[in-house]
Amino acid sequence: MSAPPAGEDAYRGAVARVGQAALAALQGMEVAERRLHPPLVAQLRQALGPARDRLEEALEAFAEAAPADAVLRRFHEQLAAGAGEALAALRLFLDRAAPHEATARILASLGHARRAQSSLYGLRGVLPGLEPLFLEAGAPAAARDADPTPPEGFRAGLFEAPPERGERGGFSLYVPEWWDGAAPRPLVVALHGGSGSGRDFLWTWLREARSRGFVLLAPTSIGPTWSLDAPGVDAARLVSMLEFVAARWPIDRARVLLTGLSDGATFTLLAGLLEDAPYTALAPVSGVLHPASFALGNLGRARGRRIHQTHGALDWLFPVALARLARDELQRAGADLVYCEIEDLSHTYPREHNAEILAWFDPSLALAI
């Protein structure tokens, strides 16, 4: 085979550079998010600076290499959009802000990082270098096929159910592409934190869902956060969403995990212990036991319930003393409780802890690494 024309070769080089720079940027953001703690922000910014510079240079060269071919143009625009979101994430994280704006800017930067993953996910088949974002190292061979052929009539991949009204509500859903639907699979329902969305929080679990073969449902609250003062409102919506999914895909009702971060964790304990809740296990991360749990009789229903509680010793929003109080109350109530206190975790998500939660929830979801 003859060598490609010089222009084509140069374009391939530009694609490779921007793809590698975007990967490095998003991996850097994941590390920064895991280590996010107010005293460490300056250090995290310093570590991310080179990734921003590299991505800026790569994107500038990539923009100048825009192809004339219509098919390639669509690919070019999608890659540019994903890399652009990654760059926006870095810039927001790195830009100095007034103290009262800093937290909001960092949270916004994490949202851009999630949207970058959303844009880049569809390119994983043509840019295999992006796979570390979307697949665990020990994933089975079947999961490594970026574009498997599904059985006739079976739908898999990413789905969005937009809100019925207003700007919030609805859910995001991921069904592993390599699953053929022949045998029921576990379902993980993942709840975002305050001011978050299911569309963004989905990416906190998608890599594991694709690698291990479970269905992932990420709802969005109607309000800015979950209905903590009226649990039945969002709890009923969650059950409705679960039923919608189970009516279309074979879900194993004996393996349904409800988990969440921050307010999503607090709501996990509220909604998950309501009467007739359909969840077989609960995994709150960085949340607390809401006072309504006592009034609703939730603790009376906690006996024998499988709960995996995770909290950071450095949590500045919900101090670890509150988590220990919740632990003690749940243990007194007779819950089948695993309590995990992470020494270096602040009020953020410990992505590496997903593996432990999944192995506890369902040993068949553990990877052979």
List the helices and strands and how they pair.
Blueprint (H helix, E strand, L loop, with lengths): L5 H29 L6 H24 L5 H25 L4 H23 L35 E5 L9 E5 L9 E7 L6 H4 L4 H7 L2 E5 L11 H16 L4 E11 L1 H10 L8 E5 L6 H4 L10 E7 L7 H13 L3 E7 L11 H8 L8
Parallel strand pairs: 3-4, 3-5, 5-6, 6-7, 7-8
Antiparallel strand pairs: 1-2, 2-4
Helix pairs in contact: 1-2, 1-3, 2-3, 3-4, 7-8
Helices and strands, in order, run as: HHHHEEEHHEHEHEHEHEH
CATH 2nd-level architecture of the largest domain: 3-Layer(aba) Sandwich
Helical fraction equals 40-55%
Whole-number average pLDDT?
Answer: 94
Q: Which CATH C-level class of the largest domain is it?
A: Alpha Beta
Write a structural description.
Strand 7, helix 10 and strand 8 form a beta-alpha-beta unit. The N terminus is likely disordered. The protein is globular, with a radius of gyration of 21 Å. An eight-stranded mixed beta sheet has the order 1-2-4-3-5-6-7-8, sandwiched between helices. The protein starts with 5 loop residues before the first helix and ends in an 8-residue tail after the last helix. The longest helix is centred in the first third of the chain and has 29 residues. Helix 1 runs antiparallel to helix 2, helix 1 runs parallel beside helix 3 and helix 3 runs antiparallel to helix 4. The protein has two domains: 124 residues, no CATH class; 228 residues, 3-Layer(aba) Sandwich (Rossmann fold), CATH 3.40.50.1820. With 369 residues, it is α/β, with parallel strands linked by helices. It has eleven helices and eight strands.
